[in-house]
Amino acid sequence: MKLTVRIWRQTGPGAPGKMVEYPVDDVTPEMSFLEMLDVLNESLIVAGEEPVAFDHDCREGICGMCGVVINGRAHGPEQTTACQLHLRAFRDGDVIDVEPWRAKAFPVLKDLVVDRSALDRVIQAGGYITAPTGAAPEAHSTPVPKPDAETAFENATCIGCGACVAACPNGSAMLFTAAKVTHLNVLPQGQPERESRVLDMVAAMDAEDFGGCTNVGECVASCPKGIPFFSITTMNREYLRAVRKH
Q1: Which backbone phi and psi does 207 adopt, to 5 degrees?
Q2: Which of 74, 94, 190, 197 could form a disulfide with 126 if both were Cys (CB 3.0 to 4.6 A apart)?
Q3: How far apart, in whole angstroms, are the C-alpha atoms of residue 58 and residue 95?
Q4: Would you give the end-to-end CA distance of the chain in angstroms?
Q5: In what order do the strands lie in the sheet with 3-10?
Q6: Domain spans, the chain
Q7: 3-110: what CATH class?
Q8: Residues 6+ apart with CB under 8 A from 203
Q9: How far, in Å, CA of 202 to CA of 165, rounded?
C-alpha cells in the first residue's frame, strides 16, 4: 500500500502548528495505524528530520495512551483505539489527516501529544473508595445484585483515552466522568462517598474547563470501550440527588 498522511506538526505548547504532508510507502493492510507511524518515523530519522511525536504504550487497546484524530474522527473510522486500527480500514492511495485531540482542557505538548492530566485530576477528586487496608475480604461477604455488578463492570472498562472529549463539539468530559462515578456509586463499597464523589468530580470537571454536554452523543459513538450514554443520565441523577441531600 501507498498512503499520503497529513500530520499536525507543532514543536511545543506555545508554538504555531501546521499540517505537513508525507508519503508512506511499503505498508501493508495488516499493519496497525501506529505501526504505519513507526514506518514514517524511521524514514524521517534516516532523512535527518524530526520524527513525529505521538503517545503510545501497550498497543493492545488497554492503556488508552494512543489518542489521535484520524480524518476528523477520534481514533479513526472504526470504534476502537488507534493502536488497534489497521490499515485495511483504508484503501491504497488514500490521503489521511492525523491531528491531536482538540479540546481546551487538552493543550498540545508536541505534534500529536496532548496533556491529558486533567482527566487524572477529575479521578483524584473522588474516584476512590474508603476501605481498610489488609487482606482482601471474602468475595461473597458483600452481595452485589447482578444488574449492579454488570453496570459497574461496563463502566469500569473506561480506559481514560479522552476520545469522548475529542469527539464532543463542546469538548465535554461528561462520558468519562459519568463512567467513573457510575462505576463506584452502584457498588456497596462506594456508598460512603456516594454524594461527595459526584459533587467533587463534577466540580473538578468544571474547574478543568471542559465544555458542557448538549446530548450530541458523539462521545458514545467514538468510545472504544462502548461506555453507554445512559451513564451520563445516571450521573445527572446522582448529582441531583446529592445536591438535594446537601
Answers
A1: -65, -25
A2: 197
A3: 27
A4: 60
A5: 17-24, 3-10, 95-99, 69-70, 73-74
A6: 3-110, 116-130+140-245
A7: alpha beta
A8: 125
A9: 15
- In contact, 100 and 158? CB cutoff 8 Å: no
Residue 70 is which amino acid? I
Instruction: Say which amino acid occupies 11.
Output: T
- The Cβ of residue 227 has, within 10 Å, a number of other Cβ atoms equal to 24
Burial category of 93 from C-beta neighbours within 10 Å (exposed 0-12, middle 13-18, buried 19 and up): exposed
The grid cell for 216 is 450530541
Which tens digit of pLDDT belongs to each residue from 41-74?
A: 999 999 999 999 999 999 999 999 999 999 999 9
Q: Cell numbers at residue 172, please?
A: 465535554
Cα(78)–Cα(112) distance, integer angstroms: 19
pLDDT in tens, 144-182: 999 999 999 999 999 999 999 999 999 999 999 999 999
The count of other CB atoms within 10 Å of the CB of residue 55 is 22
Q: How far apart are CA 15 and CA 125, in angstroms?
A: 32
Q: Which CATH class is domain 116-130+140-245?
A: mainly alpha
d(CA 198, CA 107): 25
Rounded Cα distance, 208 and 121, in Å: 8
CA angle 217/219/221 to nearest 5° reads 80
Contact 189, 230 (CB under 8 A): no
Q: In which element (H, E) is residue 202 found?
A: helix 194-207
pLDDT of residue 120: 97
pLDDT mean by block of 10 residues, the chain; 246 residues:
97 95 95 97 97 96 95 96 97 97 96 97 93 74 91 96 97 98 94 95 97 95 96 97 92
